[in-house]
Amino acid sequence: MLASQRRQQIAEALEREGAVRVADLVTMLGVSDMTVRRDLDVMQRAGLLTKVHGGAMMPGNSAEEPSFEAKLSQYPNEKVAIARAAAALVRPGNSVAVSSGTTTWALARWLPPGITVLTNSVSLAEELRRIKHDSTVVLSGGVPTPSNALVGPVADAAIRSLNVDVLILGVYGMDSKSGFTTPNIAEAETDRTLVSCARRTVVVADHTKWRTVGLAQIGPLSMAHTLITDDGLDSQARESLSSVVGDLVLVTPGAGADLHGQPVWSPAHHAFGLDGTSG
Length: 279
Fold this sequence. Notes:
single chain, 2 domains
């Protein structure tokens, strides 16, 4: 297969999925790992994609906000593993704020029963209702964004009046200089309001979010009491993050996981409480 044909197929896969893995491209194209990486280098120099650890994603800019549907197919195994680890920090009876995003949406399947969920995510609220989850859901109200987040003064006022045990916060990007960011200025303000109403902030972000920078800063990396990501994060990033976040938790994605898995919550899965003590 000619190089131009391979790169066309890579471009088409990116258009469909929004992100691709090197390992998947090796299988799809029937070429070596090194050949795929050279193709990605060439395409990145041409501005056709952005390389991330283990693969590539569609090129973007700091103010471009992907839709919820576009993000849903990106790194589902990682998102499920991260969501399950985050849900393990919640116990029945807790009040939990959950921001918008596809990783936080995956929480619906793993959250324990008997909790109160405050969220600005239309998608999460709909999913909790769809699966008949045993929780009380408080939807903030506000103006929807492309990622199905409710933001703006109405959302901020509703959130500001409440206090929760823990916030599980999804982010667009994380960077040693820029901190946690989002492409949407109003969403950044709403996320900061969520942080202000929580006793503990747990940030969930797969490894591709490292060194991705959105237009608006939510806050510095140090605002995370816990950061849950996957073991695709490189050693340099691990060192940088470990020095500033409270606890860095790395999870290993399970083979064949998807964002529509069945809930498997039981008390035995909850190893830690909100105060960090073993349960």
